[in-house]
Amino acid sequence: MPAKPYAPINPGDEVALIAPSSPLPDPADLLDHVAACEGLGLKVRRFPTLELRVDYMAGTAKQRAADITKAFLDPKIKAVLCLRGGFSAAHTLPLLDLKKLGATRKLFSGFSDLTMLLNPLMSVGGLMTLHAPTMGVFRKADDLTNASREALKQFLFGGIDAEYSYRGLCEPHFQPVTLRKGRAEGRIVGGNLSVFVTMIGTPWMPKTGGPFILFIEDVHEKAYKLDRYLTHLIQSGFMKNVAGVAVGQFTDCAPAQHDQGAALAVIGRTLAPLKIPVLAGFPIGHDLPSYPLPIGAKAVLDATKGDLVVRVK
Q: In angstroms, rounded to a whole number, what is the distance separating the alpha carbons of residues 214 and 295?
């Protein structure tokens, strides 16, 4: 599962803004999303799917796959950024030449439903990708939004030989919660938990081969469903090489009526039989601030000291 780092970009570079999943609920908000992308210091080229809608999808699978492919293969485009998540990125996978796209070494950034593209581009395409907020997150100018924006700019413009300690990068917003002590090394896979588990049994589920660190986050999922997803990952055999788990934000994941376990308690209990380090509290996911995480990067998770060190090289 080795992945090559994405090529660095510079302020002023032209980037693609595409919609591989769902359209905006209100089309009138598009200009704000484009402006937010420009606010990162980038020149934005708008692709057709930004203004398409087929039910809950930003156009047909063929239209969305065409945008993805054109964005990656256009030599003037230096990075591919996503409008929003939602649903339906999975529809595009059979229509993509992931190895050809990965060979461009272009930065691809998104989260939530884009987990369906982040991991296959990494595992099949051999390209390190970036789990990071989509453009709607950056429309405001409050302190938490600004912190998220500046963190993303570090990963966009910081080069490919950087090393990031998340205790330092996210301070003061990272409050480590150790669910099980220990130290683990491996490449990072994962993203949105409920999306990630749907790749089990498909050609696009990462084939880890060696030790890896699973990153998970989610939104609007009851605690018992988190148990279901993690149990499915374990029983599928996928977790046989897992070295550790980094737990991001679980937004609005309260227990169902009459249940007692909150999200972290359920996660800790479900993972306990694996006897691996588990560290929670990462400000990565659907809340603000939301920090980037490179999928496919080598990392050291220290759940005893409360840190994750990622090497983008």
A: 10
Residues in a beta bridge with 218: 250
Question: Does the annotation mark 217 as catalytic?
Answer: yes
Separation CA 107–CA 72 (nearest Å): 9
Domains, the chain, ordered by start: 14-157 (3.40.50.10740), 162-312 (3.50.30.60)
Name the active-site residue from 21, 88, 112, 194.
112
16-29 residue pLDDT tens: 999 999 999 999 99
Q: Which residue has the tokens 């737990």?
A: 247
Which runs of consecutive H residues, i.e. helices, occur in 46-142? 61-73, 98-102, 115-123
Could you read off the pLDDT of 140-149 as tens digits, one per residue? Answer: 889 999 999 9
Residue with token string 């908000």: 29
Does residue 286 carry a catalytic annotation? yes
**The amino acid at 241:** N
Q: Which of 33, 131, 173, 286 is catalytic?
A: 286
Between 17 and 256, the more confident residue is 17
Query: Does the pLDDT value for residue 260 go beyond 80?
Result: no
232 catalytically annotated: no
Catalytic residue among 88, 217, 221, 290: 217
Distance CA 290, CA 272 (A): 27
Of 249, 245, 217, the C-alpha closest to 302 is 245
* pLDDT greater than 90 at residue 200: yes
Span 30-48, pLDDT tens digits: 999 999 999 999 999 999 9
